[in-house]
Design a protein that fits this description.
homodimer, alpha/beta, Rossmann fold, eight-stranded mixed β-sheet, two-stranded antiparallel ribbon, 5 helices, about 30% helix
Chain lengths: ~190, ~190
């Protein structure tokens, strides 16, 4: 998605070869027009997947997930992060290690909002190692629901998360795939356009 | 806002006289069409305030804040919650006690995204005692920015937060003001329509 790639180049900050900060427009301050366009683009890419629900993880995925869900006319649902596991039968939960924060957390989804009849489109802001996405897939599996697509705003193509999920057969589409970062120079992989 | 009041009556759950759960459509699962309409309504109520930025608190305020910000054509910004204070001069921060979670947390906003030239419209999903909103007002004050309006989705009118802020002179508008809850029966206060 050219609009997002341009935004990353113009306003993002690449630190070293691995850290990409986009808190100017995506995960602290949010550009609502960009988010709207991202939602439309996810709809274009996944409109034939039969999704009944968009699922994301708090907090940075929420705005994009809601924009996409509006295009589909289906609900959005966000997994809640908890420092320690909520006990009880009322939630599906999975543990996830965050490299960004250097800690393990538990994400929770109420059993009321995912069922075996759901076809889930996962949306998130970033994909690197794929830990968060895999935890979400675990939760969706616990509900007996089906993952019909994975839409990522920014994928770090030089990390293994996206590749591993594609090899497992998931339809993964990323609006911008960063191929490499070097001295602040960001190179993108051409997008998969369908 | 009739649409929101109806949604609360039909899908919300009142527990006792104080707890109102709206995780079916607002703060866990999200109805994107409702959120869009709420954004438009906040725009209608605050369009003359000269806002340059919409500021909210993660996570449940984000979708509404972004919907409103899109109507205004200005950025949204969300304060990040941290279990302990981020040290350093790079963030404005304020402590807040959460009655929902029974703990104190610190909310942080990067100094990069709030300045003395900003006119801030605060948007949040709930107002009860007003703790979170007051912490956000503290942060906005640290930046030398001005609060030009406070838009709340659901205000608990029987708790003191909204009244205290109105008495201080803030323009507070809530899309639904719950007057009382009793045995699952929810009564609303007529809205202020401008």
């Amino acid at each position: 998605m050219k609009l997002l790639e341009e935004k990353i180049k113009n306003e993002g900050t690449a630190i070293g070869t691995d850290i990409l900060k986009v808190d100017m427009f995506l995960n602290h301050q949010i550009d609502p027009i960009l988010v709207e366009e991202m939602g439309k683009e996810f709809y274009r890419l996944f409109k034939d997947c039969g999704a009944t629900k968009v699922v994301t993880i708090e907090s940075s995925g929420i705005s994009i997930a809601v924009a996409a869900a509006r295009c589909f006319g289906i609900p959005a649902l966000f997994a809640k992060k908890a420092a320690h596991k909520n006990v009880g039968n009322e939630v599906y939960s999975a543990k996830c290690y965050s490299f960004t924060h250097g800690n393990e957390y538990t994400m929770n989804v109420s059993k009321k909002y995912l069922s075996s009849e759901d076809k889930v489109l996962i949306i998130d802001d970033f994909m690197a190692g794929g830990n968060a996405c895999n935890a979400l897939i675990d939760i969706i599996g616990q509900a007996g629901a089906q993952v019909v697509g994975i839409g990522i705003a920014i994928e770090k193509g030089f990390q293994p998360g996206g590749k591993a999920l594609r090899e497992k057969g998931y339809k993964v589409r990323s609006l911008a795939i960063v191929e490499s970062m070097n001295d602040g120079e960001i190179t993108f992989t051409p997008e998969i356009d369908s």
